[in-house]
Each structure stands twice: as structure tokens, then as C-alpha cells.
């Protein structure tokens, strides 16, 4: 969530009001999401959601809110790929070699994630489906423990946010095999995308956006959107986000609405086919 934290102060300054961050962790963001769904539609309670917002309807049999009906999109904040990283003992230098190796050793290569149903878990399942390989998923209670075991060589792979693994890749303690998004990132321009490596249509882009409660007046939604957009266009924030492997967005609310719908459609079959379920 580094990119979102980077955005907080510039957006607050652009809006001319201080944000009070009310962290409500738990159940893939469902606790905080329900709170905003039931809040007054006055623009004072905003919700920052991640990609899991579009995965949860397929992941959970029942949610305490309606993903499409109970919110109005304000703006897509930023998006960015994850990085497929491996322990250097793995005899694969890139994603193409990883896939070839996995086909000769079905089920022997293990990838760690922050838990069943996490973004990294679903990313691995999508790679398995599209590349037609068999990897073993090892869920952890958070991304940190997964990376610790990866560094120790207990597992072979992790799908990780770019900022969290930069120092390990730069020092050779981990090896970057592929970018999960549609294009390379400035932090690792030499690392090809997984799609470039032969897995057509593979695109796992993590994103964050801002929603308000349904019924929030449209003029207020556009005022909030304008504040977000101004902040995202500042050169300093742009540079910091790009350095973290993220790309600022700021698309219009109706475009963000269409984007969320496309994400709901895209992830549902992957989750259903994989049987991925939260702990």
C-alpha cells in the first residue's frame, strides 16, 4: 500500500482538507467497505479499495454490501504490476525458463502468498491456468513471512509488489523473473513481462481507487475527483509513484465504473476455476 500512502498528503493538500485515516483491516477489506456502504452519502466517508474489491464477489458466497449498487466511483488512483521473484537457487533466469522448468517438474515448485484468496494467490492461479503448469501454493499469514521463507530458500517463488523486493533483487538475494503487467517498469527495465515470455493475455495489475457511498451528489463526486486528479498530476508525486513501480491514473468516475465492471468479469472465472477461497 506504499503508493496509496504516497498519494495521501498531496490529495489532502489539493482538496484543502485533512484526511483522517480510519484503518479497518480484516476479511480482504470487507469490514471497511461495509462501513462506507452504510455511511451517509455526503462525501465525508471515502473508501480506498484495491484489486481485491473486484475479486471478493467471486471469493465470498455472501457480502454485506452490493459491490456495484452501494458505491459510486470517484477515481482510480494508481495501478501497477507485481514482480515474479525467485530464490537464486532456482535454475530459471526469466519467466519463459520458469514455465519450461515447471512443466518438467509438475507440482514441485512452490509459490508463497499472503494467504488463501489473496491477490498473490489468484495471480499464481492465473499463471497456472494460462501457462498450463502446476505450481504448489503455500499460504502464509501475510506477505512478509512468505518473503522471509523465499529468502531462506524454503519456497521458490513469490508474486510481490515491486517496492518490497527492490533491495533484494538489486543485491542478488532474489531474482526477478517477470513483470505481471502489460508493460515493463522503470525500476527493472531489463525484466520482461510474463506476456512477453510466451504467456499470451497474462495481465495481473494491482490497483487502488477511491469510492464514495451510493447517493453521493454528482457535483460533490466531481469535486473529489478533481482534487485527486490535480494531486496525481503533480510532477513530484508522478516521479515517486513511478519509482515505486506504480502508474498514476485519475480517470473519470464513469471510466472507473467501467473498469471495475471489467475487473469483476475478468477475475470471476479465474477464482471459480481455481477454487481459491479465503482463510
Give the SSE layout.
Blueprint: H1 2-15, H2 30-37, E1 46-50, H3 52-59, E2 71-86, H4 95-104, E3 110-113, H5 119-131, E4 136-139, H6 143-151, E5 157-161, H7 162-170, E6 175-179, E7 205-213, H8 218-232, H9 235-243, E8 247-248, H10 253-274
Parallel strand pairs: 3-4, 3-5
Antiparallel strand pairs: 1-7, 2-5, 2-6, 2-7, 2-8
Structure notes:
With 279 residues, the protein is an alpha+beta fold. 42% of the residues lie in helices and 18% in strands. The chain contains ten helices and eight strands. The protein has helices spanning 2-15, 30-37, 52-59, 95-104, 119-131, 143-151, 162-170, 218-232, 235-243, 253-274, and strands at residues 46-50, 71-86, 110-113, 136-139, 157-161, 175-179, 205-213, 247-248. Strands 1, 2, 3, 4, 5, 6, 7 and 8 form an eight-stranded mixed sheet that branches. Strand 3, helix 5 (119-131) and strand 4 form a beta-alpha-beta unit. Helix 1 (2-15) packs across helix 8. The longest helix is centred in the C-terminal third of the chain and has 22 residues, at 253-274. It starts with a helix and ends in a 5-residue tail after the last helix. The model has no long low-confidence stretch (mean pLDDT 88).
